[in-house]
Here is the input.
Amino acid sequence: MPVMSIIACGMLEDELVHVLSKDRELKQLIVVENRDSSGFLRKLRLRNCTPRAVFLDRVPMLLQDRHSPAFRASSKLLSCFPLFKKFCRKRELGEEISVVVNLLSLGLHADLEILKAEVYRNIREMAPFSDRILIFYGTCGHALGKLEEDLADLGCPLFFLKDKNGETIEDCISLALGGNEAYARAMAEFQGMGTIYLTPMWASSWKRLENETGSRDFNKHYLKNPLYCLAAKIDGGLMSDPDFHTNVKEFASTFGMKVVNLKGNVEITERSYLKARNGADRK
Here is the structure.
């Protein structure tokens, strides 16, 4: 049974919950336990997902029964028998899979060099027990733009969140809107008007981000600049956060902005997840 690992930005936990809760062939779901995983675990359980939460160094122990040399050797021996081969082929068509999710802190964006270092480090730590890794990030200010090139020696296939043109998305807003082109169109539509784009996670996290990281993206002095006049609320097609509207309204009121609505979708999220879980062509 293959193991797909996912290294994800904390800002994309809603998108991850969406695809994982729809995957009926998940044999095992493991979430790496850290100080940022509690909200993600709660959302999964509300969607009837029952993950196991363990520290990263314990993950190989949970996988070893299925992926130990002894198991693989016995499978190879049994594969000589036609009945066993037929059974295995049937199981492969069902594509049962183990998924390991490592959700990294959304506060890493305050320093792109630290973000890059943490993503690279976690990829290298997870590669030994993974058959493939889905990078649930955009290029993030080009901090991760050369990730595949830099890790060419990894020996574990990497998959990315890509739009319909095969381009890795720029960031979480591009993902929510449906791709880099859609993001560019939205910015062109509001040309001349400073706009802050809000997904449910951004709308619920901006206060914490400012307090914990001093993030420029949500710095009060920065946002009270009169050039910023629009708060774009993105309906990305995910299960609605009951507090989304309230959070956006509070944000807009705090910074004297007008709320505008944008329609997004989950096409890139779903397509990229399925490609990675099925080991499809990465291009």
Summary: Residues 112-126 form the longest helix (15 residues). Residues 67-76, 84-94 have pLDDT under 50 and may be disordered.
